[in-house]
Amino acid sequence: MRGSNPLVTLSLIKIIMTNFNPDGNQYPIEQWEDLAENRASNSGMVQKIIGGVVAGGLGITFGVEILGGLVAAWCVKSALDSGKNIGKKLRLVRDCGCNAFVLGEEDFRAYLKQFGDKTVFDELTFAKQAGAELTPFAESWLRTYTKALPSAQHEEQQQLSLTQSVAQSIEQPVTVVSSTSTPQTITKVDVWNPNADSEVDIIREVTDRITNNFIVGIGGSGKGMLLANALREVKRKHPDKKIFLVNGKVDPKEAGYFDGIVDVEKPLHCESAKPQTVAAWFEAAMEDYDNFAVQNNGGLLVIDEGTIIGARLKTAKCTTLTDKLIGIASCGGSTGKNVWFVAQTPFVGANGSDTSGISQLTPIVLVNQTNLSVVDSWKRASLFKKFDTEEIAELVNQSECNRAVYFGKTAQWYSLPKLINYSAYDRDAGKVIGDVKDVKQAEDNNDIHSQDTVIQQLEQQFNKVDEKLTDCIYFDKLADATEPVSFEAIRNHVKRNLPELGKVNLIQEAIDKLIEQELITGDRDSGYSIT
């Protein structure tokens, strides 16, 4: 570059190589949830107690025992109050997806930029109504934002109430156009009509055309009965459709749900299994399903007890569940693959997945008369639009089986019609309803103690695999190395020699075990070497 200024040239090079990213502080929602949970857990209780002890000591030292005692008592009381609030904050973060109210100024601004004023305002309002303490910056923002709301909002609310009253008298849904100085928004007012059909034939809806569904309900809500009825209807309407069940619970009383209906069942009682065992079992099951789908021109994959499975996989740092949900939802149609994911909570993080996997499934949510209270904590879930808990309670009362169902295809709640119970147990009554011999036979076929034996065998097998992998890394790759070896070099070595163990999470777990045993040292940035 003859004749050019070297300083200018250097500046241009720096500009070209810059890592400037205005959205660099935008994170996945799961990372925000982890950050919020960490903030909610940090109450400063220990510091306040120490401060109280110090204040009391200084009071005694300088002869002002009463003042020192008062300060100490205030610090201790403040610490205890903070401790009591931890549980409430964690419940709002974990169960309700409420994050903004515990964030400091810098994180709050980034969260606000990523999700917008309306979402943050709704979260803070919800937290305030729940009696939670907001961070000072969140409190200040909420106060400022509330004052800035248009004064015409009250008039608009009056107009909306009047319009709804008129609509109820003519029993027709109406459209209301906001008449404020802000940009006009067309709001659809969905007026409840008691004379309209409040039931939905949910079994017909999900089986006429098989799609990908996310079935949600806490224990006893009716997920098993819904699944049992729907799978039988799938077989009746689509006799060539094969069903592959991955079952995370073994309960002899519920054996009738799937017996003779699913083509393949892969059961494991995940509650009593270690995370790495569940990960190994689930990955093997997914490989079997892929082969099953190839042989049968597709297949319906049913993942039951998805919450416990997902929780164990998340602990094991296994992404197979999310990968499979995304893969089938995005590309399964062309290969005849579909998935029904059954879980106990609508919050994706608790199910070991993320929004990219769950959001592509149609939500179907069940509640019964004994767990209506949980619906309030579900309002924050992204799969719902806003709903009225009292209307859901009315739908439950109208239902012959005292249940309501949310169908994501219509984004509406309905009374659930009575379904056939194919199990040998009535959960509502808490009693066995089938032939005692049949129940005993089911218990013999699905003995939970035999499952413990299966789990032990899996874990023994896993330990053998683990030893084979650690030996491959330690003796075959690192023992003779004269300088640190990168993670990619280790992985390439494993893939050449043990291709069935070449997955990233398995290799990382083996490396972590070697580090824990102080046999090797290092990290992904600097590489690994023998200690």
Summarize the structure.
By secondary structure, this protein is of the alpha/beta class. It has 20 helices and 14 strands.
Structure characterization notes:
The structure is a single chain. The protein has 531 residues and is of the alpha/beta class. The chain folds into three domains: 25-148, no CATH class; 202-445, Rossmann fold; 449-530, Arc Repressor Mutant, subunit A, CATH 1.10.10. Helices cover 52% and strands 12% of the residues. The chain contains 20 helices and 14 strands. It has helices at 6-16, 29-41, 45-61, 65-96, 105-115, 117-129, 136-148, 153-170, 202-207, 223-237, 275-295, 306-315, 320-331, 355-358, 373-378, 389-398, 436-445, 448-478, 487-497, 504-516; strands at 174-177, 186-189, 213-216, 243-247, 264-267, 299-304, 337-343, 362-368, 403-407, 412-415, 425-426, 431-432, 520-523, 527-530. The strands form four sheets. Strands 5-4-6-7-3-8-9-10 form an eight-stranded mixed β-sheet. A two-stranded antiparallel sheet has the order 1-2. It is globular, with a radius of gyration of 29 Å. It starts with 5 loop residues before the first helix and ends with a strand.
